[in-house]
Amino acid sequence: MKRLLCVILAAALVQVCTAAESLTYTADGKMLPFSGYREWIFLSSGLDMTYSAPEAAASAPGHSTFGNVFVNPESYRVFLATGKWPDKTTLVIEARDAVTEGSINKGGLYQTQFRGLEVHVKDEKRFPDKWAFFSSDGKLPARKIAETADCYSCHKEHGAVDTTFVQFYPTMLKVAQDRKTLQRPRAPAAK
C-alpha cells in the first residue's frame, strides 16, 4: 500500500513539475505553443462576455462566443489551500463559436469552432508587474499583449484576487471569500 501511495505521489509530482515548466518563450518574448490545457482544471465558461461598453464591444450581429477558462493544476491546488495564486499560475481562456443550429438541437447554444486563446500568466521574475497577457490563434507563438493595453489596467482595477477575475469563477470565488483574499467585494448579480 505504501509503495502504491509513493508511486501515485511521484506521478502527481511529475505532473505538477511538467505543467509548471511547460511555458517557454522565444528570444523576442513570444510564448511558444503548448498543449494539454484542456486537461487542466476547468474554472468556468462565459457567453459573449465583454468588459467594454456595449456600443464599443458590438460583435458581428447574430454571432456569439463562449470563453472557457482553464488553470494549471498546481496553481489550482495552491489557490484552494491559500486563496492566492502562486508564481507560474497560468490561466487560459479558449474562445469558441457559439451556435444554436446543428444536429438535433432545438434551442440554446453549444460550442463549436475554436477561435483563439488568451493566456494570463504570473511570472514574477519575467514580468515587471508579475502578470502578463498573451494572445494566440493556438498555432503560432503567442504574442505578448503590450502593457499599455486596457486589459492590464482593467485587471488591476477590477480583479478580485491578484489581478484575476475570480468573481466570474464561482468555485474560486467561494474559496477567496472563505480565505478572505478578495481584494474587491463581489459585484451584485444582475436582476
Fold topology:
Layout: H1 2-20, E1 41-47, E2 64-71, H2 73-82, E3 90-99, E4 110-122, E5 131-136, E6 143-144, H3 150-158, H4 170-179
Helix pairs in contact: 2-4
Helix content: 25-40%
Structural class assignment = alpha+beta
Rg from Cα: 18 Å
Strand fraction equals: 15-25%
Order of helices and strands: HEEHEEEEHH
Shape, principal axes of CA atoms: globular
**What is the strand arrangement across the widest sheet?**
1-2-3-4-5-6
CATH superfamily of the domain at 18-72 and 85-146: Cytochrome P460
Count of alpha and pi helical runs: 4
What's the CATH topology label of the domain at 18-72 and 85-146?
Chalcone isomerase
Q: Report the average pLDDT across residues.
A: 83
Sheet with most strands: 6 strands, antiparallel
Spans of at least 5 consecutive residues with low confidence: 1-21
CATH C-level of the domain at 18-72 and 85-146: Alpha Beta
First-to-last CA distance: 53 Å
**CATH architecture title of the domain at 18-72 and 85-146:** 3-Layer(bba) Sandwich
DSSP strand tally? 6
How would you sum up this structure, described in words?
With 191 residues, this protein is α+β, with helices and mostly antiparallel strands. The protein has a domain of 117 residues: Chalcone isomerase (3-Layer(bba) Sandwich), CATH 3.50.70.20. The chain has 4 helices and 6 strands; from the N terminus they run H-E-E-H-E-E-E-E-H-H. Strands 1-2-3-4-5-6 form a 6-stranded antiparallel β-sheet. It starts with a helix and ends in a 12-residue tail after the last helix.
